[in-house]
Amino acid sequence: xxxxxxxxxxxxxxxxxxxxxxxxxxxxxxxxxxxxxxxxxxxxxxxxxxxxxxxxxxxxxxxxxxxxxxxxxxxxxxxxxxxxxxxxxxxxxxxxxxxxxxxxxxxxxxxxxxxxxxxxxxxxxxxxxxxxxxxxxxxxxxx
Length: 143
Hints:
The chain is 52% helix and 3% strand.
């Protein structure tokens, strides 16, 4: 087990091995392969390429290196193309406060039977008219 897997239960490690193709013996090599692909895209500002961050993308793509890199690149491209969305991405931002107040998302205190966090979206609390208005504004159309 590597330091990146520290804190994971034996059951979770086995699940990662079986379902995600995660191998502690090649974990650092897998991460390095994705990191080596970063230089192929100098047009993207990769803000993080540390082991723990890249591991998230490898797990999300079941350790398919190219697919993990593609997802990582898309993530940073999206952030670059939407700078205004991420510049004040804090709980104190009025829009974020409203979303939290509306219950988006809510987390249950207990975990599911696999030990995963459960998020709950309260669709009844959404004000559809404000969502539509925000979408129209994003498209540049007057409401």
